[in-house]
Description:
Layout: H1 15-21, H2 25-31, H3 46-75, H4 81-87, H5 90-111, H6 116-128, H7 133-137, H8 143-171, H9 174-206, H10 210-230, H11 239-244
Helix pairs in contact: 3-8, 3-9, 3-10, 5-6, 5-8, 6-8, 6-10
Amino acid sequence: MALYRLPREHPLIADSELKIIEAGDGEEEELSGASRTPWQSFLVSRGAWGFILGKTLTDTVWWFYIFWLPSYLKQSRGFSLKEIGYFSWIPFLISGVGSVGGGWLSGYLIRRGWSLNRARKTVMALSAFCMPFGIIAVFVPSSWCALALIGVSASAHQGWMANLYTIASDIFPKRDVGSVIGLGGTGGSIGGMIFALVTGYTLQWFHTYVPIFIITGIMHPLALGVVHLVIPKIEPLSSVALREAAPAN
C-alpha cells in the first residue's frame, strides 16, 4: 500500500516502460464488450497445455521441499526440532535469488536482441540443468553443504517458474492469462498431491530419500523437453483466435 501506484501515476516509472505496459490497452478496450473466452478454448491450445504440463511436472519439486524438507533433515541428517527451526529456511532464502534473477536474465537477453522464444527457453534450460544439484545434496556428508545444494536447486526452480509464468502472459492476451494460470495451478496441485503419495510410499518401502531426490532432480529437464515439444515457438495468440478455436457447444 505504501509503494503501489497506477502506472500512469507512479513517480518512478519511465515513459518507455509506461508505453510497454499500456501497449495492449487498445485490444483490451476492443474486447471489453465481448463475451468471456470459454475455458474449453484453452484445452485445445498448445500454449495452454505447454504451461499446464510444465507446472504439473515441476510444482511437485517445490511442494516436496516445502512439506518434506523438515522430515528429511530430521530423519536423514539428525537435526533436532530446534535446529530445523533455525536452519530449514536457508534454501528458501536462496531461492529468492532465482526468483528475481531468472526474470531479470531473460529480460536482459531480450534487450540484447534475443528472440522471446530463445531468451525464455535458454533461462529455463539453465534453471532445469541446475536442478540435479538437489540430487548431489542427498549424497554429500555435510548437512550444511546439503542445505546449500538444496538451496541452489530451489533457486533454479524459482528461476524456471519465473519464466514459465511469463510464457503464459507472452502467449495469451491479458484478459485470458488468469484462466491459463488457474488451469496450470490446478495441474500443479494435482501433481503435488500425487507426488506426496509417491514420497510417502517410497519412504515406507525403501526407508530412504535417495529415489525422491533423484526424481526431483530430473523433473525440470523432462518438463523442458515437454514444453519445447508442445510449444516449439513462443508467440502471442489473440483472443479472437482463441475463441474461434473453442469447440462448438
